[in-house]
Design a protein that fits this description.
The chain has 3 helices and 8 strands; from the N terminus they run E-E-E-E-H-E-H-H-E-E-E. With 118 residues, the protein is an alpha+beta fold. It has one domain: Winged helix-like DNA-binding domain superfamily/Winged helix DNA-binding domain (Arc Repressor Mutant, subunit A). It has a 5-stranded antiparallel sheet, with no helix packed on it. A hairpin with a 4-residue loop joins strand 2 and strand 3. The two termini are 23 Å apart.
């Protein structure tokens, strides 16, 4: 059994593999994207400014909010039922991003890689 963070039914963040289980399909996340998601998970229901998320994703580089958009897009594709109309990770214009769900620690049994969907 592995410990993960459930965002909603059938959506579990797997910190060990740094990705997300959607039902029985695993979505791996690039390290930078996972770091940004982890920061959001550590601060649910708090608006996180772009500047903070940029420091988390690119700790040694100076970046702009435009660099953050693709990472947020990847996260939304993995956790949202409709990424174009997000309900879990929302934008607060001129303020930052807000994870509108409280992650719940769960124990789960992931499928072996041979059973992953392609």
């Amino acid at each position: 059994m592995i410990r993960g963070l459930q965002l909603r039914e059938r959506i579990i963040v797997d910190p060990q593999q740094q990705g997300i289980w959607r039902a029985h399909h695993f979505v791996p996340l690039p390290i930078r994207t996972y770091r940004i998601l982890a920061c959001c998970l550590d601060h649910p229901h708090q608006i996180l400014p772009d500047s903070l998320l940029l420091r988390v994703g690119w700790p040694e580089d100076i970046r702009t909010p435009a660099d953050l958009f693709p990472q947020i897009h990847r996260i939304r594709q993995a956790i949202e039922s409709d990424p174009r109309h997000p309900r879990l990770l929302v934008t607060r214009r001129e303020a930052g991003y807000l994870l509108q769900v409280t992650p719940v620690v769960v124990e789960f049994d992931p499928l072996p890689p041979s059973a992953w969907s392609s």
